[in-house]
Specification:
By secondary structure, this protein is of the alpha/beta class. It is 32% helix and 24% strand. The strands form 5 sheets. It has a 7-stranded mixed sheet with strand order 5-4-13-14-15-12-16. It has a 6-stranded mixed sheet with strand order 7-2-1-11-18-17. It starts with 5 loop residues before the first strand and ends with a strand.
Length: 419
């Protein structure tokens, strides 16, 4: 009989650290292996929806992050010329889904998560290789590190879209594919700039600008492009060519940016769902399990959901015998169907908002504008079943943000009410 209370998390990003904190709170001894020299994330923002904030409630972090909410009043969807296609009120969103939408720098979330782990739990500059998932004998899984082998009753593969852990568990899976578009991101101070949070759609292009609580601005862009293409000069110049004549505040944001502030990455996703999110004593989460286009803003949110659901099913003590850790099959059952549906919806939204054809884009804009005027909650309805998710165990949300009209739902069956 295998008996180990040691959990090893491969990857020190948002999903991996959330899992580490959640498992630690359930009684596991946790080691996080991060191959980078530090936990400092790439300089970009992340949007946390009410579903992820409720997951963070489970580890005692939800209210701290809610306090970073900066979006007040109207926001919504615009054309490159500045016309509003759809408006969304922050209060209406909070009322519908039981909490705010919070845009923050990834470093802020990483720092808060890391602070909730015991000293010495995180090892940076520590690559990891899964040597044995613990499947054949029920013995602990084995992980190779620069400092020697580790044994674990549970291994969490949170090592991103190009996950080596996933490749070891499911070597026949084709892995990620190019989504057809590239993206840019930047977080910069722009003193004195005042604007309504927005996303702007043009033919084959989009742009988003959002204020952060600390006064900085988070901006992102995306455009259809061949995989691997890069600017002939620098990526700020490329953004100026593509977006420099779009509506305010986009030119002001670009004027304030330095070339080094602009990050560019091609967008990839897992088009073919994995057969499972676990094998033996190993579970996958986040992009390692279900990388999706960013068009719903749910990639990081779903990783956070994964983490608290995994800790819920992994149990408070880490015991078990046989070929698999008890609870991992339930984790797959809870998460695979939900994340597959959300990933497919993100692909459909990408096809809509990245439409290249100008006539098609004009028809899209007219339809969005007409529907938004006829039904003001049109935009919000697209997040029903996503942003209203509740964790499988209490607390579901803080009393001051939970909407009394909404009832907790089973994460494996979003349409079924919990008793």
């Amino acid at each position: 009989m295998a008996r180990s209370t040691h959990a090893v998390v491969v990857g020190g990003g948002i999903g991996g650290l959330t899992a580490a904190v959640a498992l630690h709170r359930r009684g596991w001894r946790v080691t996080v292996l991060e191959r980078a020299a530090s936990l400092a994330p790439v300089g970009a923002g992340i949007t946390l929806a009410p579903n992820a904030l409720r997951a963070l409630d489970v580890i005692g972090l939800g209210d701290e992050i809610r306090d970073l909410a900066a979006w007040q009043g109207d926001g919504g969807l615009r054309t490159p010329g500045g016309r509003w296609l759809s408006r969304v009120d922050a209060a209406a969103l909070a009322e519908r889904f039981g909490g705010p939408l919070v845009v923050l720098h990834r470093a802020s979330l990483i720092t808060s998560l890391a602070a909730r782990l015991p000293e010495g739990s995180i090892r940076t500059a520590s690559g990891a290789t899964l040597l044995d998932p613990g499947e054949s004998t029920g013995a602990p899984a084995r992980i190779g590190t620069p400092d020697g082998e580790l044994e674990a009753g549970l291994v969490v593969g949170a090592d991103g879209i190009n996950s080596a852990v996933r490749g070891t568990l499911f070597p026949e899976h084709p892995g990620p594919v190019y989504a057809g578009f590239t993206s840019w991101r930047l977080v910069i101070p722009v003193p004195g700039l005042r604007f309504a949070s927005h996303e702007t759609w043009g033919p084959g292009h989009l742009w988003g600008t959002h204020p952060l609580k600390d006064g900085r601005v988070y901006a992102y862009a995306a455009a259809l492009a061949p995989a691997g293409q890069r600017a002939p000069d620098d990526e700020k110049a490329e953004l100026l060519r593509r977006y420099g004549d779009w509506h305010d505040p986009i030119p002001a944001v670009l004027d304030a940016a330095a070339p080094a502030d602009v990050l560019r990455h091609d967008v990839h996703h897992i088009a073919e769902p994995l057969p499972a999110f676990h094998r033996g004593r190993v579970a996958l989460l986040g992009d390692a399990a279900h990388a999706m286009p960013p068009t719903l803003g749910q990639g990081g949110n779903q990783a956070i959901e994964d983490a608290v659901v995994l800790a819920h099913h992994a149990g408070p003590h880490g015991t078990g015998s046989g070929r698999e850790l008890p609870g991992l099959a339930a984790y797959t059952a809870d998460r695979r169907s939900r994340t597959t549906a959300i990933a497919r919806q993100a692909v459909r939204v990408a096809r809509l908002n990245m439409t290249r054809n100008r006539v098609g884009a004009a028809l899209r804009d007219t339809a969005v504008s007409t529907l938004s005027k006829a039904a003001p909650a049109f935009f919000l309805r697209g997040f029903d079943g996503i942003a209203d998710w509740r964790p499988p165990g209490p607390p579901y949300a803080s009393d001051d943000v939970r909407s009394p009209e909404r009832t907790p739902r089973n994460p494996a069956h979003p349409s079924r009410r919990l008793p």
